Amino acid sequence: MEPFTIRAYGRTELAQCYFPAVNSQVAYRKLQTWIDYYPHLRERLEAAGANPRSRMYMPAQVRMIVEAIGEP
Predict the structure, then answer these.
(1) Closest Cα partner for 31 from 57, 5, 59?
(2) What does the alpha-carbon distance between residue 17 and residue 66 come to, in Å, rounded to a whole number?
(3) pLDDT tens for residues 14-56?
(4) What residue spans define the domains of the chain?
(5) Which DSSP helix (H) or strand (E) runs through 11?
(6) Is the pTM of this model over 0.85?
(7) pLDDT the model gives residue 32
(8) 37 burial level (CB within 10 Å; 0-12, 13-18, 19+)
């Protein structure tokens, strides 16, 4: 298994890293649920420039997600 790399990811691409056994839409919804579960993660992501309409997570945002949730 390859080590996880902090880089820019498409939102479904990152979600599929966490949930590879489900289709991309389900994986994306599950990742959003996890982001909402962790206290203040959504606010930190928005402060770092994340937009609900954005289709990419920048490396700084990916780092925040990995710090909160852990590596996929």
Answers:
(1) 57
(2) 11
(3) 999 999 999 999 999 999 999 999 999 999 999 998 888 889 9
(4) 9-69
(5) helix 11-18
(6) yes
(7) 96
(8) exposed
